[in-house]
Amino acid sequence: MEDATMEKGIFEGLKVLDCASFIAAPAAATVLSDFGADVIKIEPPVTGDPYRNLPNLPGYPASPHNFAWMLESRNKKSLALDLAKPDGQAVLYRLVAEADVFITNFPPAVRGRLGITYDELAPLNERLIYASFTGYGEKGEEANKPGFDSNAYWARSGLMDLVRADVDVAPARSIAGMGDHPCAMALYGAIVTALYKRERSGRGSHVRSNLMANGIWANGILAQAKLCGAKFGERRPRERALNAVTNHYKCRDGRWIILSLLNEDRQWPTLARCIGREDFITDVRFATRADRHARSLELIKIFDEIFATKDLAEWRKILDGNGRCVRTRCWFRLRTTPCSPSTARSGSTAARKPSHGIRPASASTAMRFFAVPDMTRRRSGNCGPQVRWPEGGASRMLLDWN
Predict the structure, then answer these.
(1) CA 167 – CA 161 distance, rounded (Å)
(2) pLDDT tens per residue, range 338-394
(3) Which of 160, 329, 353, 394 gives the lowest tally of CB atoms within 10 Å of its CB?
């Protein structure tokens, strides 16, 4: 028989205060809520969290749904508090006294002005996990500098430069939340680690993470190479790649396929047969791995011509039907990937229980546990107008928690 706690979610009964905005820190609270935690989102009165307005900014896709808020604030309750005023701080302190986790991404100086530093909240609750998130860390001259994933994660880590096809191409722009969501998982991991520590010690702690550190971690292989004094070679475009069998090629229908032959000695003959060039197996130009690498430019030109003769679907059928001896990947456009059956089967998306009419599916937390329900499917929280609790509202919130 499954444990009753597991039936409701791993973090059933865990009380979390989400005092954050844009995007990594609130998303970490969302992950906790996906596994059953009770999350209260603290927002400023009247305007609410400015993240509610994200889809209205220029360049975002038009939708009748507030898709950004739906993603980051599902499962949460909303409480309006003016933390710049003593009354608002007093209500927050009462909630902190009963909370397990407090999450914020205000810069250290702002936390000080609002009275929500770790040193101020920890005495209220010795079991509190205080999780803070910043752009560039909490020490040094950039500690109070605002950071977004486009600059602190994407640009400062070197990723923005390294994904370019070659040095003459303009830097690649990031997309909304591209760095924030991986960072959310790092902060979530820190929180869960602190909860485990609390189980052993009985005491809470302060955990922290930041965008730049996560960007460096995402770029960790090349960052470590630099730290080891490695010498970096010339940046080469696709047409001049050093290995033709770990490269991408354009198909007849304009879509792209990526070859990923990591065991060339075994996989090369199969690839040659699949593309109708069995003669390549004995061709002295490409007979060995060293030969193929030495003539990579010549082989790329040949592959460009071959893959341009069929649509992507045809190539996938040919290459995937060979016992997986040839590893391929496809370049997918966003308009197809999230809605595909394979995406749902992988657990990347989950159907939602409607709260008001039809509710679209939602992008899921990227991990699953056996015999534990997917709490992403819970009814969405306050995705509509922001709630300002009337007199006594905080008391009712405490009653809900208790």
Answers:
(1) 8
(2) 555 655 556 566 655 544 455 667 676 767 676 665 555 554 444 444 444 444 455
(3) 353
Written as six digits, the tokens of 248 are: 């991408």
- Above pLDDT 90, what percent of the chain? 63
Closest among 113, 98, 107 to 139, alpha carbons compared: 107
**Nearest Cα residue to 56 out of 176, 174, 173, 149:** 176
Q: CB count, 10 Å around CB of 237?
A: 12
Q: Which domains does the chain have, with CATH numbers?
A: 4-220+339-401 (3.40.50.10540), 238-331 (3.30.1540.10)
**CA nearest 188: which of 39, 379, 349?**
39
pTM for this entry: 0.83
Rounded to the nearest 10°, the torsion over CA 317, 295, 170, 62 is: 0
Listed residue (247, 241, 297, 239) closest to 271, CA to CA: 247
Question: ∠228-234-239 over CA atoms, to 5°?
Answer: 135
- CA dist 268 and 249 (Å) reads 17
Residue 89 corresponds to which tokens in the numbers above? 């701080």
Catalytic residues: 180
